[in-house]
Every structure is written in structure tokens, then in C-alpha cells.
Design a protein that fits this description.
Layout lengths: L6 E4 L19 E3 L1 E4 L2 E2 L5 E2 L10 E4 L6 E5 L2 E2 L12 E5 L11 E3 L13 E3 L7 E7 L8 E7 L3 E2 L10 E10 L2 E2 L6 E4 L11 E3 L4 E4 L5 E3 L7 E8 L6 E7 L5 E2 L9 E9 L11 E5 L11 E3 L13 E3 L7 E7 L8 E7 L3 E2 L10 E10 L2 E2 L6 E4 L5 E3 L3 E2 L13 E4 L3 E7 L5 E5 L8 E2 L2 E2 L3 E9 L4 E8 L2
Parallel strand pairs: 19-25, 35-42
Antiparallel strand pairs: 1-6, 2-5, 2-8, 3-4, 3-7, 7-9, 10-11, 11-14, 12-13, 12-15, 15-16, 15-17, 18-20, 20-23, 21-22, 21-24, 24-25, 26-27, 27-30, 28-29, 28-31, 31-32, 31-33, 34-36, 37-38, 37-41, 39-40, 41-42
């Protein structure tokens, strides 16, 4: 047994010289244990004088903390007599050095953090050798008036049922423990909680409300709300109820966002609304500012693959364009409506002139692309939306020939669809245009007309799909 604690259990059997084997714990008054290493006795061998503590179960012996292989001889003597009532045996084991766990501390919240929601789940890093943890929280250093040395088990997170106290600076200590004891000299973590229940509005700090000559390429920055998991932005032109450039647009869980470039010399109203899983802030007040001159813009980029207005574009296409001089990068929007961004949403793709989609484009769909070059002075202004139409993926299998000679091989002719809308009807003509057979989707042609076999020749077909598409071609009949 390697690296075991230094307290070890022993199991033993009794054997009497005066009868058959039986349990004689009640007649034995003492157990004497003698430990030896390499046949040399270890000092301070343990003697247990209370057989009732071990009667009917395992005996236990404690040895000094050494890292040696120890052989233990366990005799049992009857008090006041020299009669041996237990059969003696030997066992051995490896004694390891006992250790307490290392210290840990809160990783969430971090030390000194403020505006912590009262429903926060406290987290800490696992401690080496720990079999469990205790958590103490107080309103002053070293105090335990919030949570007093609570054993939380062998976990690395804990949430108070009633939440943390609101608006308080709290001091938390996590102590790891095992059978050898608790971690020592561990430090506290302090943090300050929020003093409200409802999700509040945030404050936009850049641009400041009332500013003038704001850059038309301005980035909007606000203060983080720790109760929020995300933010919505509304941008209105000329008045609070004016044209919405953005209307409750999801801007992620950061603290800044770059809206589309503003118009020069125009009044704007900006609202940022925090939200989380259960609620959305109510009554958030917008800021307003007026933009300055337009930035001398870069020329717009123009697609050269696919070209603007192109049809039957493969769904696996990539976008290519000629590089724009002095551009530092490009912002890309791709959607299925004019100005839309359902496929690519305001993505900064850097200084490249090719974009590869992560997935195939939808088939038989008009795709709209807006590509805006930018540099340190801002982005191009009023760049046009370009568009193209993707191919319709239809895979109809039409046999090129068949041999209706009743040999069981290629005796029937019928088109099938692998991909695309199903077949509604198929018409078969001879080379002079005479209709020989009309098939439904599940029928086939056996090479006859009015039960008369048709000669070897080429025949024409017209396949009508359920979406109105028509496919024409020819095949061979061989006899």
C-alpha cells in the first residue's frame, strides 16, 4: 500500500489451543504491537489496553511518520496468564508522509472586484490533495457573520441560497482539507456587492451626451452592468422617434460597439439597454450628439466574383474583389434582403480581397453583398449593395439507354431525382415528335407503344418537376 495515511487497519482471526476456532475477544485484555524495520524494533511500539475498542472488528495501530516498509508482529496475551489465545501473524505496508492540502482562493469574484450581483455563484480553483472545502464569509476581515466555516463538499463552486448581502464589502476564505487537516496561512478575498434587485440602465460614456462635431465613424462605449448578459442598441436620426438606423439591435456583452457610419452634420439619439435571462432594463434614456464633417472617403469595393447581377452562381462560391488603394481592411455584410446581414453580419475581415463562406449559400436565392473599405480616417460612404442569384440544385438521373429484351437487365426506363423537387410527369416522344408514353413519378416505360415493341432508335423525353421546372433530353433504345 503506497503513500497511505499512517493509521492502518488490521484484521485478525482467533485460534484457541483448547478447542476449535472461535472469537475470544472478550477473554483478551490487551493487545501488544511491536513494529520492526529490517528485523530491528522501532522505539515506542504501540500498546492498546482496551480490547473493547476493537472487539469484533479491526484493530488499529499508529506509527511515527516515516517512509519505510514496516513489518508488524501482533501477539495477544491473556492478562495474568501466559496462555496465548490468538494466533500470531505478520503483515507489512508502506508508510507515506502525510500532507495537508495547498491553499486556494476565490476566482469569481476576483479580489477587489465591485458591483457583484447578489446571486453570483462563488468559484475557486481546486486544491492539491483536498478531499473537501469550507467557506467562510464575513462583513469584515476574519469575520464569519454571513457564512461560518461551512463544509461545502469536494466541489469548486457554491451559491448561497438567500444570496449575498446587498451593498456590502465581503471577505471570503476558502479552506481546503483532508484527513490530515486544513490548509494553513490562506488569504481572504474581498469584493463589493450591488445594492439593487432589478436590472438597471447603463451609462454611455463616449461620446458624451450633447457633444457636437462627433466623428461620423464614432464608436459607442458604455459602463458594464454586472447583472446584464447582453445589450441592445437603438440609433435614431434627427429625433428620438426618427428613422431607426438600429432598432434594439443585439450588440453582444461587451462595452462598446461600432454602428454603421453616421451621416455628417446630423443629430443622433443613442440608447443602450442591458438585459439578462429574466428581464430587460426599462426606461433607459438616450444620449444625443451631432456629427461633424464627413470623412474624405475611400472608393467602394466592387465584386468581380461573382459579378453584380450574375445568375446561377454555385452555392459554394467565394467572394473576390479588386483591392482598394489605401484601405486598411473591409467590413462585410451578406444577406438575403437588401441591406440584410443574415449570412454575414458586419464582419471586419481585415486587409484581404477574398472571402470564403463557412457554409454553402442557400440555393435558388438572391444574395445581397455590401463591402465597405476602411482606414484610419473611416470607412467608404454610400457603398452600393451588390447582388447575385445562386443556382438551383437539381439532380435528375436520366438513363442514357435501356435494352427491353426481357433479360432482367435494363429492361425499363424511368428518370429519378436525387436532389431537388420531385418529378410530376414525364413525356416520351419518338424522333418525329409523336407522343409515345406519359409517365407518373412511379411509372416506367417498357419500350412499347400500344403494346407493340418500338425499334432501336433515339427517343426524346420531357421531365416536368413539381416546382414547374422542365428538363429535356434524349436517350437510346437498343434491342
Amino acid at each position: 500500500m503506497n503513500n497511505a495515511p499512517y493509521t492502518y487497519p488490521f484484521r485478525y482471526k482467533t485460534r484457541s489451543r483448547f478447542g476449535r476456532g472461535g472469537l475470544l475477544f472478550s477473554s483478551c485484555a490487551a493487545f501488544r504491537f511491536m513494529a520492526t524495520t529490517a528485523a530491528i524494533p522501532i522505539p515506542n511500539a504501540v500498546e492498546i489496553d482496551s480490547p473493547s475498542e476493537i472487539s469484533g472488528g479491526p484493530g488499529r495501530s499508529e506509527f511515527q511518520r516515516v517512509t519505510k516498509t514496516i513489518f508488524v508482529t501482533i501477539p495477544a496475551l491473556k492478562r495474568g496468564a501466559r496462555l496465548i489465545c490468538f494466533f500470531c501473524f505478520q503483515c507489512y505496508f508502506y508508510v507515506g508522509l502525510a500532507q495537508v492540502p495547498t491553499c486556494t482562493k476565490l476566482s469569481l469574484p476576483k479580489d477587489g472586484e465591485i458591483n457583484i450581483p447578489v446571486n453570483t455563484v462563488l468559484e475557486w480553483e481546486p486544491s492539491s490533495l483536498a478531499s473537501g472545502y469550507t467557506l467562510t464569509i464575513g462583513t469584515r476581515p476574519g469575520a464569519s457573520d454571513v457564512l461560518d466555516n461551512k463544509k461545502v463538499g469536494n466541489v469548486t463552486s457554491f451559491k448561497l441560497i438567500d444570496g449575498l448581502p446587498r451593498g456590502k464589502t465581503l471577505y471570503a476564505t476558502v479552506l481546503a482539507y483532508n484527513d490530515e487537516g486544513f490548509a494553513t496561512n490562506c488569504t481572504e478575498t474581498s469584493f463589493h456587492t450591488l445594492n439593487r434587485d432589478k436590472l438597471g440602465c447603463t451609462e454611455i460614456i463616449n461620446p458624451m451626451s450633447g457633444s457636437i462635431y462627433v466623428s461620423v465613424t464614432a464608436n459607442i462605449t458604455w459602463i458594464r452592468d454586472f447583472y446584464a448578459t447582453g445589450y441592445l442598441m437603438t440609433v435614431a436620426e434627427k429625433s428620438i422617434d426618427g428613422y431607426r438606423v438600429l432598432d434594439n439591435h443585439e450588440v453582444g456583452n461587451g462595452t462598446n460597439y461600432k454602428p454603421p457610419d453616421f451621416k455628417p452634420h446630423t443629430l443622433y439619439f443613442i440608447t443602450v439597454t442591458p438585459y439578462n435571462e429574466t428581464q430587460q432594463a426599462i426606461g433607459c434614456i438616450p444620449i444625443s450628439f451631432t456629427t461633424g464633417d464627413a470623412v474624405e472617403g475611400l472608393p467602394c469595393a466592387v465584386l468581380n466574383q461573382p459579378k453584380n447581377g450574375e445568375n446561377k452562381v454555385p452555392v459554394s462560391t467565394r467572394l473576390k474583389w479588386n483591392p482598394v488603394k489605401d484601405a486598411d481592411g473591409y467590413t462585410l455584410n451578406v444577406g438575403i434582403s437588401v441591406g440584410g446581414s443574415e449570412i454575414v453580419d458586419n464582419l471586419d475581415i481585415g486587409l484581404i480581397s477574398t472571402y470564403i463562406f463557412q457554409e454553402d449559400l442557400p440555393e435558388d436565392t438572391q444574395i445581397y453583398v455590401t463591402l465597405v473599405p476602411y482606414n484610419s480616417n473611416g470607412g467608404s460612404v454610400d457603398c452600393p449593395t451588390m447582388s447575385f442569384h445562386t443556382e438551383e440544385l437539381i439532380k435528375v438521373n436520366v438513363p442514357k439507354f435501356f435494352t427491353p429484351n426481357n433479360d432482367g437487365i435494363n429492361d425499363q426506363w424511368r428518370p429519378t431525382v436525387d436532389q431537388g423537387p420531385p418529378i410530376s410527369q414525364t413525356f416520351i416522344f419518338d424522333r418525329y415528335g409523336k407522343l409515345l408514353k406519359q409517365l407518373t413519378a412511379d411509372e416506367y416505360w417498357d419500350g412499347s407503344y400500344k403494346q407493340r415493341p418500338q425499334p432501336s432508335s433515339s427517343y426524346w423525353y420531357q421531365v416536368n418537376l413539381s416546382n414547374g421546372k422542365v428538363m429535356n433530353g434524349y436517350f437510346m433504345l437498343k434491342r
